[in-house]
């Protein structure tokens, strides 16, 4: 029974691999995913070029940027709510 679970895990891992990776050889034509950067300027061009140059680096930068943007937007929302009179730091329960 234990052997069956191990084989099932290997089969599942192989199904997750992209077909392109399994079928690629030296003589095959691989599909290349690139972004057309001709219309982008500034940070959009940098982001698109990063995607074209390294998908791994693009993924790492994306993983780092998303939480930073969340913290910035959360801080701004807290600032705006405190300016209009909503204080989330002092919470009184409505249920008595």
Walkthrough of the structure:
- The chain has about 100 residues and is an all-alpha fold.
- It has one domain (about 1-85).
- The chain is built from four helices and no strands.
- The protein has helices at about 1-15, 20-25, 45-55, 55-85.
- Helix 3 runs antiparallel to helix 4.
- The radius of gyration is 24 Å and the shape is flat.
- The model has no long low-confidence stretch (mean pLDDT about 80).
Structural features:
mainly alpha
Cα Rg:
24 Å
Largest sheet: none
- The helix/strand order is HHHH
Return the domain count: 1
Structural class: mainly alpha
Total strands: 0
**Mean pLDDT over the residues:** 81
General form: flat
> Percentage of helical residues?
55-70%
Q: What separation lies between the terminal Cα atoms?
A: 56 Å
Low-confidence stretches: none
- Sheet-strand content, in percent, reads under 5%
Number of helices: 4
Summarize the helices and strands and which ones pair or pack.
Blueprint: H1 2-16, H2 19-23, H3 43-53, H4 55-83
Helix pairs in contact: 3-4
């Amino acid at each position: 029974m234990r052997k069956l679970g191990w084989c099932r895990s290997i089969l599942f891992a192989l199904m997750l691999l992209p077909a392109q990776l399994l079928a690629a050889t030296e003589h095959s034509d691989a599909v290349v995913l690139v972004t057309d950067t001709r219309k982008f300027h500034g940070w959009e061009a940098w982001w698109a070029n990063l995607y074209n140059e390294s998908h791994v680096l693009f993924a790492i930068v994306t993983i780092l940027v998303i939480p930073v943007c969340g913290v910035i937007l959360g801080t701004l929302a807290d600032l705006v709510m405190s300016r209009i009179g909503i204080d989330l730091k002092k919470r009184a329960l409505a249920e008595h």
